[in-house]
Amino acid sequence: MVSCVAWIKARPALEGNDSNVDAVLGASPKILVTGGTGSFGQAFVRRLLDTIPDCTIRVYSRDELKQYDMAGSLGHDRRVRFFLGDVRDRDRLERAMHGIDLVVHAAALKHVPICEFNPAEAVKTNILGSQNVVDAAIDAGVKRTIALSTDKAVNPVNLYGASKLCAEKLFVHGNVYAGSQDLRFACVRYGNVMGSRGSVIPLFQKQAASGVLTLTDRRMTRFWLSVDSAVDLVLHAVGQMQGGEIFVPKIPSMRIVDLARAIAPTARIEEVGRRPGEKLHEVLLTAEESRNTTDCGLHYVVRPDSGSAPEPTVAGRALPDGFAYSSDSNDEWMSVEDLRAFVAETMAASPTAAPAAPELSAVPETP
Question: What angle is formed at CA 358 by the lines to CA 72 and CA 121, rounded to 5 degrees?
Fold first, then answer.
């Protein structure tokens, strides 16, 4: 019988634990964001510019118009440089990562039905592209690399979710390829981001004028968070990551029918049927994963599975046997009133909110 190598105990990169970005990256960090012109990318870049005066940010994406628009919206800040490129192009990634301290990998194909009908393209971007990011980061000696994942990667029933599950595995295993170098890879996994391009909110707002809102299924529930909360989670993970973890926030659930009522309380709701690859409810943690998960208060940390009970790498408490974190059995829910206030605040504050395709289970979109 071949025994499992307990690599999570052996790597020098697991020693030490810094709690903030400055301590990890220094006062003048150089940061690359793939998919940086998407909803998350723009919010993340703005946060860095506001909080780290002496930073250098490289925005890596494949749409020159979005880069042009983003540069203008940032007042052509000299701290931000734009790299035109695709994560499918490893050579271009290696050039973009030269001298970089932190990579945040947000680029992906994320629209569920489109990925269902274009599976090869989703694989090239979400899986092969993620492997390119890992390889390029190791070759460039990037200190920290963190990937954005989704609740759809848990028990996936669609191609998008399956491809993001593969991406998670690639990032977790990237720590093995880093060897004795202090190069760390981790993931954050969360639900739908309110106000992002791809969110259902702009669709409902547009439909409200007609008096009819379309839902795929009235029973549908989703995890929900603001883009600022997503940025907070990533920055926290950068300071805490020791290599191979998946950070999962504790966030509220909402019923899609309640969101419709919050946006258009007098509109008629028309149920149009589930779309290909669409779930009724989402899961952020399975019972199997919970065996390797620590409850850290505001979030969970899933440690790499070594086949046996690993030593905790973060402070917190173990989860009970059989624990699962699902949107339909969550302890925290957003009411219609909560959603109405949240939508008004988020849409007013979001510089990237714009009408988009009707994606009920939306995540931050990338170019």
Answer: 75
Overall CATH class of domain 19-349: alpha beta
In terms of Cβ atoms closer than 10 Å to its own Cβ (0-12, 13-18, 19+), residue 312 is middle
Q: What is the pTM of this model?
A: 0.87
φ/ψ of residue 30, rounded to 5: -110, 125
Q: Are 216 and 360 in contact (CB under 8 A)?
A: yes
| 348 Cβ contact list (under 8 Å, min separation 6) | none
Cα distance between the two ends of the chain:
47
Distance CA 60, CA 142 (A): 15
Residue 135 pLDDT exceeds 80: yes
What CA–CA distance (Å, rounded) separates 107 from 122? 11
Predicted local distance difference test score (pLDDT) of residue 29? 95
Residues 330-339 pLDDT 10s: 999 999 999 9
Q: Where are the domains of the chain?
A: 19-349
CA within 13 Å, CB half, 237 = 33
Provide the residue type at 6 as one letter.
A
For the ranges 13-17, 43-47, 220-224, 290-294, the lowest mean pLDDT is seen at 13-17
Beta bridge partners of 301: 247, 294
Q: Which amino acid is at 241?
A: M
- What's residue 5's pLDDT? 38
Active-site residue list: 152
pLDDT, averaged across the chain: 87
∠ Cα 47 228 160 (to 5°): 110
